[in-house]
Amino acid sequence: MTATNTIVSNIAAIQARIAAAHYLFCPSAPQATLMAVSKTRSAKEIQLALSAGIQHIGENYLQEALAKQAELQNNAICWHFIGPVQSNKTRDIAEHFSWVHSVDRAKIISRLNDQRPSQLAPLNICLQVNINDEASKAGATIEEIPALAELVLNQPRLRLRGLMAIPANTRDPAQQRRNFAAVRELLHTLRQRFPRAQLDTLSMGMSGDMEAAIAEGATILRIGSDIFGPRAAAKPD
Ligand SMILES: *Cc1c(COP(=O)(O)O)cnc(C)c1O
After folding, report:
1. Where are the N6-(pyridoxal phosphate)lysine residues found in this chain (predicted)?
2. What's the gap in Å between 35 CA and the centre of ligand 1?
3. SS3 for 63?
């Protein structure tokens, strides 16, 4: 099989895995959206993913993403920013993305709101929660999330959609499910506290833990290596 149709057949295989996991764990829930995470991948590789039906693309590094967006401007793509957000990047993120999944502090929230262009729809926001409280990981603590949620809900140019998490790395499916269940429960407490908010999103599940995430209610799966193949070392922005 050539590299070209590997991406296409990988996506078909993942869609089958998603359908199977739904059938097994949550047959009545709407099927989770498959986002292709294309950090370090070329515009050509993204185009192959689009040809296989992908509409949502996730990028981690701003400059790399902007270059690919320019190359792919004639395609219908919903762009998601999923990497660390530094203050000096918020203007470009607010202008060039539909979603940001990696919001974890107040300063970033107010900058994204102030810099979201008025002719665009409000920017969709997921708060990133550091669900296992790992020192090495980004994300707000569980305790910080409600106040950050209230802050996002008070910004007219932002729309709070839910939570994003990258749990502690484990191959144990039971532990994966416990971690994702904690994210789901946190979203539930936010819904009770902010009943009028449109909190419909759990952005969780990567190549190694997608099925466990679906079992716990994931609505957006962020899949990189199972679509595009193993990555070379991450590059700095
Ligand atoms: C790279 C990345 C992914 C995809 O991870 P894979 O294991 O390659 O599927 C998902 N989410 C975030 C935030 C990432 O940085």
Report:
1. 39
2. 10
3. helix
Domain that holds residue 204: 3-228
Is the Cβ atom of 51 under 6 angstroms away from ligand 1?
no
The segments of the chain whose pLDDT lies below 50 read 1
**Can you tell me the distance from the alpha carbon of 200 to that of 222, in angstroms, rounded to the nearest whole number?**
16
The Å distance, Cα 15 to ligand 1 centre, comes to: 17
Do residues 216 and 181 lie in contact, with contact meaning Cβ atoms separated by under 8 Å? yes
Distance 72 CA to ligand 1 centre (A): 21
Express each pLDDT in 35-53 by its tens digit.
Answer: 999 999 999 999 999 999 9
> Which residue from 38, 54, 82, 209 has its CB within 8 A of the most atoms of ligand 1, so it is best to mutate?
82
Task: State the Cα–Cα distance between residues 48 and 116, nearest whole angstrom.
Answer: 30
Q: Let me know if residue 237 belongs to a domain.
A: no
Residue 231 pLDDT: 81
What is the CATH number for 58? 3.20.20.10
